[in-house]
Design brief:
- The structure holds 2 protein chains of 2 kinds.
- Chain A is mainly alpha-helical.
- In chain A, 83% of the residues lie in helices and 0% in strands.
- Chain A has a single domain, classed as ABC transporter involved in vitamin B12 uptake, BtuC.
- The N and C termini of chain A lie far apart (48 Å).
- A 6-stranded mixed sheet of chain B has the order 5-6-7-3-8-9, with helices on both faces.
- The C terminus of chain B is likely disordered.
- Classes of the chains: A mainly alpha, B alpha/beta.
- Chain B: GO terms for molecular function: ATP binding.
Chain lengths: 287, 279
Amino acid sequence: MIDLLAPFVEFGFMRRALAGCLALSVSAPPVGVFLMLRRMSLMSDAMSHAILPGAAAGFLVAGLSLPAMTLGGLVAGLAVALLAGAVTRTTMLREDASLAAFYLISLAAGVLLVSLRGSQVDLMHFLFGSVLALDDPALILLGGICTTTLVVLALIYRPLVIECVDPLFLRSVGRAGGPVHFAFLGLVVVNLVGGFQALGTLLAVGLMLLPAVAARFWTRELGSTMAVAVVIAALASFAGLSLSYRLDLPSGPAIVLAAGALYIVSMLVGPQGGLLRRLRRPRHLEA
Amino acid sequence: MSAIAAPGPIRLHGLTLGYDRHPAVHHLNGTIPAGELLALAGPNGAGKSTLLKGLTGEIPVLDGRIERPGEIAYLPQIDAIDRSFPVSVMDLASMGLWRRLGPFRALRRTRSAVLDALAVVGLSGFEARPIGTLSGGQFRRALFARLILQDCRTILLDEPFTGIDARTTEDLLALVHAWHGEGRTVVAALHDFGQIRSHFPATLLLAREPVAWGPTLRVLTAENLARARRLSEAWDEEAPVCDGARHAPPRADAAAHDHARDHSHDHDHSRPGDREDAA
């Protein structure tokens, strides 16, 4: 056990990385659970691309500065989320299609901006993050995102569930649907921006979705799905960081691969529709 | 549920609803009196669902206006609901309490009311079941439990008995009658004329235009039904812009429902180029 914890005891940067990843592990997976249940899993992938031009603009203005890039990412992500949400709610276009349109525009703009000034190194930083170089502001940012996410989720939980199950009903009994929808999209963006700092744009989605999808194989009930997802994400963060330290691997991909491994295990042995359970057909009941 | 104060009437003034400027409900005038048990009949595409959506405010009015009596409970056609979402029957029924509880107030104190509503629809013992495991009939019962908890004075039902068995239909019809007995206004879009004749005292026969509105037996005549079929089939891409001048309140049958509404439209269906005449 001591051996497992050794790198975190020994090195400050490992402790910071773990703290940051754990904060993200608490906030991102519950958001991912809702995305998955809304059949919008790939939406987070699209959103992570949408963040790119904002972060790139921040980089162009201020160089490798966390506040500038975070702010840029937030602005770009929220703009895409709000525009896509507004188009979905006011035209016949479905959420996935309107989002695809806006994220493609945003991604192309982002690549353009990065190529205007960035070098290969900068691009790698965008894509894979810098979890081993989390400084104080970055940690505070991740902690703040975690707190905000949990508070907002608690505030909008009931209408969000109704909006997911029966949006028509929520519209027929009040006006909560719109604000709740946008608040949720905002949470997705905020968590992706946080994940982008730690894991990079491409992998931020991993910590949001893989634990959520894996948790689905363990429990059927909504609240416990979120709890299991958080535990899986925390395990993946710990395992990924440990492996990246021992085997000298890039930490972002290591964390997401650890989450991926947990997903595959869950898919195989999970009690709710896991593959192995399906092979062994249980005797059916009387009624 | 105890008896409730009489709801106000729903008044429709030259109501036109539709999609893409094409009317699906065209110049509907009339009053649904408080406490009415009204069936909406008509072929597919006649505008029944559209009218119900218009009454709830779900779709915007193209022309005319609606006077609503206050809160309206609405049962849409089933396919709008995501049944794979992991919520229980209890959760689904409890949604009916949204107007009273909002996002924060505790569900604990209303638990007995929810259990009562589930008992009324015959779902006692199903509280913890995920909604995805219910049969079609059970799911419809759960939605009726939600309607009970909404406790609205006006209840709109869009094809509430489509695809469910006789026993469930019977139970839910009894519930509809109970609502009628409590003085609630119930409007239901239905396809089964036998059911309408035996359970619904009043009927509005729609075919985009109102064909007839009044006591069920006088509305559901062979002649009216044939006319409804003919009218409902026309959708004309090249339709001219409607000037509204030729649309009067519906025929004499509706007079009982439409006192005191003095419309100045003339009732001239003989002009050349009329869409219905072409159809």
